Amino acid sequence: MGRRTLIQSTVLIVVVFAVMLAVGTLISSEPSEATQASGRVPTTTTTTEPPPEGVVIVRINNGVFSPANLAMDLEVTQTIRWVNEDDREYIILANGGAFESPPLAKGDEFEFDFSTLEPAIHRYNALVGFARVPGSVDTRPEQ
Length: 143
Known about the structure:
Layout: H1 2-26, H2 33-38, E1 55-61, E2 64-66, E3 69-71, E4 79-84, E5 91-94, E6 109-113, E7 121-128, E8 131-138
Parallel strand pairs: 1-4, 3-8
Antiparallel strand pairs: 1-2, 4-6, 5-7, 7-8
């Protein structure tokens, strides 16, 4: 009887996982099929003030940076403000250790002034659990 119970429990776990996966697929943040077919840009109800002069906003949502790779002219823009719009908590960490954010919950922000570093390609990651989300900032002058 123990083996039969084990098999039934395993089947139940697989079925529950499959149902959760199917529901997750149905619930997405994608625009509706009608919007996609029309070629219209989806509208949003988010109202935010523009960032202050010299600041670029990088949003973290669905496990990615938007934008993930930036080229910044330090004479115009010096600071990046990362905004966590995801339900997961992230820590943003420069590969060379030049900056590290505290844990950012949904709605939290972190800023870093790249004018304090030498012009270069600065790579960073957002740590979420054991995963790393890559990003980069190129502050070299145009060549």
